[in-house]
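Box 4.2: Ligand-aware structure prediction
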Amino acid sequence: MYVQRFGEQLIRGAATERPRGPEYVSRFERWDDLASVRRRPRRRFAAGEPDLYFPPELYPVALHPLVAARGSAAVKGLLLQRLYDYLEFTTELESLAVIPVATKISRGRSGLDLPGRMRSDAYKIVTDEAWHAQFSHEFAGEIEAETRVPWLRARDRTPPAFLSRLDEVRGRLPHRMRGVEGLLFAIVSETLISGMLSQIPRDGRLPQSVRNVIRDHAEDEGRHHVYFRSVLGHLWPALTRAERQAVGPLVPAVVYAFLEPDYAQTARHLGELGLTGEQIDQVVTESWPAHQVRGDVAAAASQLTRYLTEADALADARTLAAFEEAGLLGPGHQERGGAAKEFAG
Ligand SMILES: [Fe+2]
Ligand SMILES: [Fe+2]
């Protein structure tokens, strides 16, 4: 197994037989001066900080009348659980989704013929992400110790929703293409501007230490965003036409895998507050109406959709249709879409 693992690639086939991508410009020249693992202290959670732990606007169930009726202490407790979820999600995302992909890239096992500089920068990303996983985990532990409010009971913890969603995408790929979903998920999760990363550091209602932890993370992610945009620029031209046709229509599901709320996790928290099953369903559906989720996902993914358009990923008619069906195309894409459809037809 270990010898086999040595040679495993994210995308099968001889990388050198695939077309090479564009020039690569590194954003990691000053990594030693800028990376949070090098420059930032370990942020500590201190007792006595404000007790609003997460912006309720980013967790709409906290604003639902059935939840509000439980009183402000219950709402604040729910928002603390949401912060724990976020920190734990970060640790799992880095450990299970980003580090494995960046490791493969660094070792020259992406399956793409990437510039040497891009490979060596991937080692820095592995280091950054390991630090993010570590400080998120440790910080959550400090909050638990200070507030004496535990996160979910161990027996209630289940894998984060993005994992089963990714398994589902993988199952829809032809066998020879399996592995590419991991690369796509890394591109998606690393290039999307998460509302949490951008808004929490500026939210003066939250504890300063929470804002600092997330600001440190966001600053590193700015460099990762540029890097994974380059990975996309190398990936798409390197795929054969048949590979693009197989992978392209699944990209919206990868976007949703990352961005759609973890409904089951929220249902567990609402159950802890004493809501009945029926009330939980009502709170979840009314707080996240389908059209609202689609709008939020499309807005969060709009920049990525533009990158994919630039990489010509939407030139394929079935891919374009999948993006339309998922509600990911804004008005600016319609004309291009029409032209592509005519061409394909
Ligand atoms: Fe990260
Ligand atoms: Fe990252």
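In the box above, the bound molecule is fe (ii) ion. The two ends are 46 Å apart (CA to CA).
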